[in-house]
């Protein structure tokens, strides 16, 4: 029994010692910068892990190398504006070019802080300000009750439209007959409480990224709009009103990234050079999905949960 108590004491001591030796995320980022400046390939590979782009199946080794070199140039001399952390997740805000500010996720591995997202996102200035325009955009989603089509239940933040047939069924959220808002494909939703949109600032840290949420009037969310090929950016969304069978939402661009719209107030047309087929549509709760809804053909959306950094 004494031996058991001693082992418990040693274990608790080890945990406490580890917590005390654990650097804050700001110090961790500075350590990453030192490694990037030394340009030691082995260490750079550790602090910018290749698994961040493992879903880029079209990439070859040269593409991965170019991505890592670009991120190294961006981060090595970055001037920190703010650091936030919760548990093993952290966010660093830093000065970007031309009076912009950027944010990037970091993740604590148990030994060190490493880069936690494949890219940095613009959270202030530049194209973000232009895209937002004069204020939040509005969208109304009608509850979907049939598998025959998405109807007016879905919304694409990438293409700024509820007419998903016009954007090859590429949407991030949809309102199901179960009364929940579902994320589609690789997109995910983080709950950030009941607050006005202007109070939602910066990338969520320590949040759980969910595949579905239950809407309530006044609830605010951050949606990570993600597709491995085309898009990775963040919008903030708030429930303005709940009517029978419908959700009225207001939304704004939170963090610009790959594929984010140039304006949130006008529909974004499809790229004329885009020859890929339309996505399939998911099934409503209790019924199986149907590939190629709304005149489309292709696989249905899906995907599992993610950690708070979205990876």
Which key phrases capture this entry?
single chain, five-stranded antiparallel sheet, alpha+beta, 5 helices, 311 residues
End-to-end CA span: 43 Å
What share of the residues does DSSP label as strand, in percent? 25-35%
Q: Using only CA atoms, what is the Rg?
A: 21 Å
Number of helices: 5
What is the H/E string?
HHHHEEEEEHEEEEEEEEE
Number of β-strand runs: 14
- Principal-axes geometry comes out as globular
Short description:
21% of the residues lie in helices and 28% in strands.
Question: Would you give an account of this structure?
Answer:
The protein is an alpha+beta fold and 311 residues long. The chain contains five helices and 14 strands. It has helices at residues 2-21, 25-38, 41-47, 61-76, 126-132, and strands at 80-86, 89-95, 101-108, 113-115, 121-124, 137-142, 154-155, 173-175, 181-183, 188-194, 212-213, 219-227, 231-243, 246-258. The strands form three sheets. Strands 1, 2, 3, 4 and 5 form a five-stranded antiparallel β-sheet that branches. Strand 8 (173-175) and strand 9 form a beta hairpin. Helix 2 crosses helix 4 (61-76). The longest helix is centred in the first third of the chain and has 20 residues, at 2-21.
């Amino acid at each position: 029994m004494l031996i058991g108590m001693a082992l418990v004491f040693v274990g608790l001591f080890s945990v406490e010692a580890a917590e005390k030796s654990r650097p804050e995320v700001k110090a961790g980022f500075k350590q990453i910068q030192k490694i990037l400046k030394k340009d030691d390939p082995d260490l750079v590979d550790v602090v910018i892990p290749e698994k961040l782009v493992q879903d880029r199946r079209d990439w070859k080794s040269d593409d991965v190398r170019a991505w890592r070199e670009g991120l190294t140039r961006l981060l090595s001399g970055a001037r920190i504006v703010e650091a936030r952390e919760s548990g093993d997740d952290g966010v660093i805000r830093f000065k970007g070019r031309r009076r912009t500010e950027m944010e990037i996720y970091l993740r604590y591995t148990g030994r060190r802080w490493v880069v936690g997202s494949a890219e940095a996102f613009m959270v202030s200035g530049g194209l973000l300000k232009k895209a937002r325009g004069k204020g939040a955009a509005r969208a109304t989603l009608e509850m979907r009750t049939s598998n025959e089509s998405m109807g007016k239940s879905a919304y694409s933040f990438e293409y700024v439209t509820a007419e998903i047939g016009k954007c090859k069924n590429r949407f991030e959220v949809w309102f199901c007959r179960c009364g929940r808002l579902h994320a589609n494909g690789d997109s995910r939703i983080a709950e950030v409480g009941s607050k006005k949109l202007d109070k939602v600032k910066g990338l969520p840290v320590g949040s759980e990224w969910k595949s579905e949420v239950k809407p309530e009037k006044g609830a605010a969310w951050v949606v990570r709009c993600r597709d491995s090929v085309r898009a990775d950016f963040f919008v903030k969304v708030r429930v303005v009103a709940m009517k029978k069978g419908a959700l009225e939402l207001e939304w704004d661009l939170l963090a610009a990234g790959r594929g984010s719209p140039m304006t949130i107030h006008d529909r974004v047309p499809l790229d004329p050079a885009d020859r890929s087929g339309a996505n399939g549509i998911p099934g409503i709760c209790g019924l199986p999905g149907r590939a190629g809804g709304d005149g489309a053909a292709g696989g249905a959306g899906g995907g599992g949960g993610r950690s708070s950094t979205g990876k």
